[in-house]
Amino acid sequence: MKLDLDDLVGNFEKWKKEDPKQFDYMKKLLHIPFEPSGNYSTPTVLIYYPYNNTNITRNEKLKMIAWVKNDNPIEVRSNIYLQLEAKGPGEKNFSAVSSQRVVLSNEYSEDSNASMRDWSDITPFLDSKETGNVSFRIWFNDMHRTYYTNTMYNKSYRSGDFYSELNLNLINTPPEIDEDCIKVSPDQARYNDPIKYEACFFDSEGDMVNVTLHVFDELGNEHKNATQIIKSGKNVTFTASEYGFFGEEDAGKNFTYSYSYDDGLNGSVTKTMPGPSLLSSPKIYTSNQNVTAEDNNQYWWQSYTFSIKVKNPEVNNLRIDLYTDTPAHGGKHQVSKCINASKESEEAEDVSFTLKPFEVSDAGQPFTYYFTYSAPDQASRSESDHEAGGVINPRLVKYPIHSGVMVANLLFILLISLVAGVVIERRLYR
Amino acid sequence: MNAIAVNVTAASPISLVDIPPTDVLSNFLSGPLASISSNGFLGVGLFAFILALGLVLHKLNMMRTYKRVVSTSDGLEISEESLSEEMFSRQGSNFNAAAVGAWIFLFVAFAYFYFLTPSLIPKYNYFQVPSLASSPIGFFLFGFLVLLLTGTASAFLPRVFYSYYQVSKNEKMAIMLTIPLLAVSIIISVYLGTICPAQEVNLRTVAFFALFVSQIALLWPVYLDTLEGVR
Questions:
Q1: Domain count across chain B
Q2: Contact with chain A for residue B130, Cβ under 8 A
Q3: What is the pLDDT of residues B68-78, one digit of tens each?
Q4: 341-380 in A: which are within 8 Å (CB) of B?
Q5: Three-state SS for B114?
Q6: Residue A395 near chain B (CB below 8 Å)
Q7: Is B156 within a domain?
């Protein structure tokens, strides 16, 4: 019976599975330890680092080179397996940082018996949470034994750019925020509007930046927070509605915010900035504010009717105040009125005030008027537009000289003056 | 190019007779008098000056009389008080009543002319007190207030100015005629107040003229005595 290699391998796998004890015994019987010949010498392996840069950052792409010198004749040489290992700041043990490299017995230069293998673009400390000293060494196996370059020699070796153990310094620069691009928009909005918090962070070493937005309520307590990890130089945007920062109960409140940010090692916190002011939810709907005078003359002594349409489905005792504004009397409160909710009616209610709002000193001046209400309107405001009402007629006196009132005024003063003359003469001159 | 011929005639002198009477009145009303009457502070100052001058001249008149009496008394000692008592002469009741009334009219007319409309003294006028100006009887109240404030002066000035001088019948007539003249000034001022901010410059000048002519007429006995004393 012919036994091919596949059958043999298949049998080995079967035996390993079915009778592992006997399989281990067979392995012992078959094991023939490799014994190097008497004139075999251990290859020399060093780290070759021909760069002046001893301060490295976490993101810096490093290139490490293994220099191997094997003076054994080719028939005695064996394959050498190389592994770069590193130890970060505060770490006790080395760990492999890249894949293995192999130097075959025929891969040495003929004149120097040396060969090189490199590990390029490696970032072994990318996730380091500390800064400080870092070390590199090479683990290698020559098919006879395993060696570490930092321990295989009697003492630490360095000659020129060749190191048995390479020590570098891991440094870090904290990220920065560009204060000019911090903003929250819109500054005034409804609670469910897509309010955006935007900011821009930079890290000179290109580290990823952890950005946490802290939103504070009116008492300065943290209301909500959210975190994003962004690339240096990229804008970070937190959309309030996406993160659920605000609810209906927050309408009408003023919030503040700040950012905390770090690159995993160093961080900072911005000052607390104002915004956004959440607008109150509309309770009433107003429109068509209007004013009409008694006639087109618009004298100051005349009555004026001010009106505004108000749709009030839910607010009882809604107070509406009328104000007039002239250069002589700025923001003068005239009158107020309270109305109740009218749920049944779909039509807006016409709220009007008829009064004599002006004084003689307002004559000849332009006036504006506006209403204030005790509940927010459709624009979340509690005050209407300041509407121009035209110019008050400059005439000062209501009564003409020939009117009864003015004749009476004149007669009284003339008569009283004459009577006073007579009375004084009788009292003081006799 | 054609020359343009211009006929030039020698200007002939214009006499007052050549100007129609309406133009004379118009020129009078719109001339310097109109300028003075339009200047509130100047007018108030002028009124106060004429009044103060009357008081000063009265004092000088009394001193001059006293000195003359002393110089002709052959060493007899005469006090100023006793001389004043001797010089005091009572005027008639009707005249006194008219004189006091005229002085009240003078102060009311002065206040109405300068402080009833904002055109002469914009910062201080009747319309700066809205509650007063808004009242239907505001004009009367304003005049009555002036009457109360100047009552003492109106009561005693006629005694000072007319009891130590020989006031002729004509002078008495002139003083009594100031009442209708000042009434005209008051009526015009009230009219100007009712049409405000419109203005009637000519009427204002008439009111001003009536006011100051009356003031001078009321002080005339004092001024006349000074003039006679100077001669």
A1: 1
A2: yes
A3: 888 887 777 77
A4: 359-361, 363-364
A5: helix
A6: yes
A7: yes
